[in-house]
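Section 3.1: Structural characterization of target chains.
Under the original work plan, the team committed to producing a structural model for every single-chain target entering the pipeline before any wet-lab resources were allocated. The record below documents one such target. The sequence was received from the expression subgroup and is listed exactly as submitted; it comprises 201 residues.
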Amino acid sequence: MQLLSTIRHRVYFDEPIVRAKISRIRFPKTCPVCGAPATTCTRISTHPRKKIWLHPASDAKFLATKEQQLANAETKSFLVDVCADHTISDNAEMRARTLSILVASLMVCISIFALIYAGADVWAGRPISPWIYSYAAIFLGSLFLAYISFRPSAFETAFKIIGFDFELQNVWIMLSNSSYRELFVEENPLSSELVNWVVKV
């Protein structure tokens, strides 16, 4: 079968990542970003089908037996305890990124006409119209806003879901705060472990 011939390779990490059983995860009551006491929760969501990794001992047969299950998998969400300064909202983030894409797309379309007018001015030997410069500034501003909206937040940098196994029983999480990582393992002694590499499909 085609799935059985899928190329797999090891991915190594400079810092250990956490492998945890999804059904038993308990997040520490501290912020994964700054380590301050948690005062609220934030939701982090991802789709397992886009983030599939294999445990070092996984058998290739899972590639065939779990394909349909993964294809139908719903979005996985986790409620993580954080401080008030580092809470995020999936909905707010999605709206901001969607708006930035729409604005940037509109500005790109208008750029075609701006270039035509600027070219006409140059061809006729006239100075380029002042509104072209104003538009260029606005266009660059829209690109900067798009960059800002898609830049990972402090929470997204500190807490990354990097993959799931084929049985959708375990999740791999990259935690940049070493103190939080150790605390996480302490909170989940029987359902988590630190690993330095995984197999990516």
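Residues 52 and 164 are 5 Å apart (CA to CA).
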